[in-house]
Amino acid sequence: MRKNSKxxxxxxxxxxxxxxxxxxxxxxxxxxLQIQDKELTVILENTSQQEERDELIQKWAKEYxxxxxEEFVPQTNKDSSFPDELVVMMEEALYDSDAANMQEPExxxxxxxxxxxxxxxxxxxEELYYFFPETAAYREDIKxxxxxxxxxxYYYNTVPLYxxxxxxxxxxxxxxxxxxxxxxxxxTVLVTERTGxxxxxxxEFEILKDKEGRVIRYGDEFYYVFLYSAFNGRDYDxxxxxxxxxxxxxxxxxxxxQPDAFSWEKLYTAYESPRLRKEMDAYIEQLEKxxxxxxxxxxxxxxxxxxxxxxxxxxSELITVAAADTDDIGEAYQVDLANCGExxxxxxxxxxxxxxxxxxYDYDSRTKSDVELADARIYGTDKDSGTDLVxxxxxxxxxxxYTFRMYYVSDYSYMxxxxxxxxxxxxxxxxxxxxxxxxxxxKEKKE
Length: 447
Fold this sequence. Notes:
Blueprint: H1 5-21, E1 34-35, H2 38-45, H3 50-68, H4 84-96, H5 108-115, H6 125-131, H7 145-155, E2 163-169, E3 177-183, E4 187-195, E5 198-207, E6 214-218, E7 221-229, E8 236-244, E9 251-269, H8 274-290, E10 314-322, E11 329-335, E12 344-350, E13 356-364, E14 369-372, E15 388-397, E16 400-410, E17 413-422, E18 425-446
Antiparallel strand pairs: 1-9, 2-3, 3-4, 4-5, 6-7, 7-8, 8-9, 9-18, 10-11, 11-12, 12-13, 13-14, 15-16, 16-17, 17-18
Helix pairs in contact: 4-5
């Protein structure tokens, strides 16, 4: 490596930071900007705080999504053992709900759950003291529901440990049934029948963790209903329905409301030569197809993590990276992202919330050692704003390397930013809003 390699590495670090700070906004000094949505761009350019910009992006994404939203078309399984009317009711609740707020009391989903008795069977702390009188003597010492369940499992040895909730109902004439929801490594629902102070297990089944499952009644049958989280663990994209039955055959119906395609709305474009515009348009057209081939946008596979998208980065065996919080080891990829003749080595991986973690390295060929540009590390998840970096890749077009960043906004809407970094100059080239076209996916599982 040349003598000035250390200086070049610092300059590249600063360029990377400058590029990442250039979040969505085209530079105000660029008078050649072609604005597709004048009102949105003016608002964004005059908003200095990133948190406010993020809120505006989410607001506009939702408004655009409503514009493209298809009419409600229910989907049921022909041979399903679940009532079609119940399935359609849940689908309509998903259709009408904000995916980020399905736990809020005023959400349409919560209204449907209440209509079906979702609060009727759930035992409050006062009701738990009534039905489990051995614990009443300690009510002054018990501060939380979690502590109360600890006492329950101690004084009633057939009540399971680590309970979150309990429900009381009669599934058949003469039966006294209690449903216990236990959260340990996974969430388990236990269906029991009470005889005296003994709780005899009828059946139990595991579900994916959800915050607030409920027991409902539809017709003559009872069901445990819960929400499926989307790939980021915060939004919701589905409802699970488990039939509670005396003669048990475990049947679960999953209703997912997920995209199978996206509409790409171009928000603005900087000046491009006719040749560059043609090449960029062709790449974007191909990108629209490529991003649907794998699980790059969180819509492939039932619960799988995202794949990492790559452009023209070149895999390198010079640098091996171990993630700090896992045992995962991966190779870095070489790319001249600043178009300055000095390569940077990039490592990428999704975290547990499917936000992209990115690290940048400089490599000294003389000493065969690498140095992480630690201040440029990207952690992906921004829990305060709800806007996450989910993909970042690099593509050579017309002899220059362009940086592509894909941000998750909300409810499967994405923002894609295209930037060009040339030494000490950073310019936003294009910005797109990706809006989902959703459909219902209904599956019944039997165990």
